[in-house]
Amino acid sequence: MAEHEDVPHVRVAVVGAGFGGLGAAVRLRREGVTDFVVLERADSVGGAWRDNTYPGCACDVPSHLYSFSFAPHPDWPRTFSGQEHIRAYLEHVTDTFRLRPHIRFGSEVKRMAWDAEKLCWAIETSGGNLTADVVVSATGPLSDPRIPDIPGLDSFPGKVFHSARWDHAYDLRGKRVAMVGTGASAIQIVPSIQPDVARLTLFQRTPPWVMPRVDRAISGFERGLHRALPFTAQLRRGLLWGIRELQVQAFTKHPNELGFVEQLAKRNMARAIKDPSLRAKLTPDYRIGCKRILLSSAYYPALARPNVDVVASGLAEVRGSTVVAADGSEAEVDAIIFGTGFHVTDMPIAERVVGADGRTLAEAWKDGMRALRGASAPGFPNWMTIIGPNTGLGNSSMILIIESQLNYMADFVRQLGVLGGRVALDARPSARDAWDDRVQERMKRTVWNTGGCTSWYLDANGRNTTVWPGTTTEFRKVTRRVHLEEYEVLRAPRVPAEQRTPAAEARA
């Protein structure tokens, strides 16, 4: 978009209507900013909780902690709620805070480019074009499924789909199914479909550590108590949060202390898996916590059933209807389900963001994602991301991180108002580097870097660009406000009066 005088202009454009985008919208309203839009490629809100509808889909963070502090929900039906309840919660938040007028559904961002002269972002979407002073990218790391490039997959005559794009029209009953991957989605899918399929072949490249999932229905009495006395729900949330804050040191500073937890996980496995050879296949050879610890009380019992085969190897090739593992073992299948994760360290949105020097964010991040305080990237003024580099958690609720980043976003917009006029903030490379150096130095001691595994936390260079190496309390402190000395203040040149247009005046 070379010219954009005649396209709509907003103060803030938010990309994505999941937890991050909806949270940003609520926070902007609370800051008195009503001139904003939320650009959503789908036809409804929910993000990952809209897209993931596979059997057994549920959260592995307790419900009362996996919700906004400003929108408590006393009526969670279970201690670990399912996908449909979380999606319903996000719909409720959207309606309660009257966000729908701000949301543009069917508006996938195709390209956004920084206009250095006008100090704004020119945004092209599938639903029309617009410009914005500030862009808040809340697309999330779990939005674009990743299917590995498997030789022969294109010629497979059966059904193929990713867990995040579940085909509900395809009936798995009586089918021979290959499940590829053993991550958080797979351990929920396997016990859900195992009773119905004729045969289930699980391709396990690396076994996960699995702890019991202590899930139960929340009683009517508890829900009524939380409605009548809201502080009881706050107390419940506080206890859940506090326990996880105390666990952080074992992950970040003293990984050897996790040996006791490993023994608990092994006992959990031994209760369900009596076959020594299968138990050997399922026992990880890395420190617990190095990969995400998974929660399930049904996964191991399902693997012990006679119609399940565990292949301790990744899928290497497809020959017609035969799937071939890297160890050479074969199986005839009717359907292949990929539970192979998402583009986390190479987010596709980065290819669509063009900065001040004409480079895309993907090009700027070709050697690894880095952002000042997990939000701002040098060369991309007035652009920030929610759940950016090194903001992930290994043991607690991402909603806590999101709310901290919303504090930072709010102060960012506030500072622009204080500076006045047509102004932008561009992160200084030196500030970004200093921040990243501190994060990576702390990362050296963590279980994610020393635990002896290869995980999706690490990028192609083996660098941990995903996890925050500290507590959520620490993260909230370091994102409480914008430090202007970490940014270059950009101001647009003054336009002579005879050259001003109404659209330009509106942006001034």
Automatic annotation (TrEMBL):
Entries under PANTHER family matching the protein: FAD_NAD(P)-BINDING DOMAIN-CONTAINING PROTEIN-RELATED, L-ORNITHINE N(5)-MONOOXYGENASE-RELATED
Enzyme class: oxidoreductase
Family membership noted in the UniProt record: Belongs to the FAD-binding monooxygenase family.
Keyword field: FAD, Flavoprotein, Monooxygenase, Oxidoreductase
Protein name: Flavin-containing monooxygenase
Organism of derivation: Streptomyces yaanensis
EC number of this enzyme: 1.14.13.-
A GO molecular-function annotation: monooxygenase activity
Lineage of the species this protein comes from: Bacteria, Bacillati, Actinomycetota, Actinomycetes, Kitasatosporales
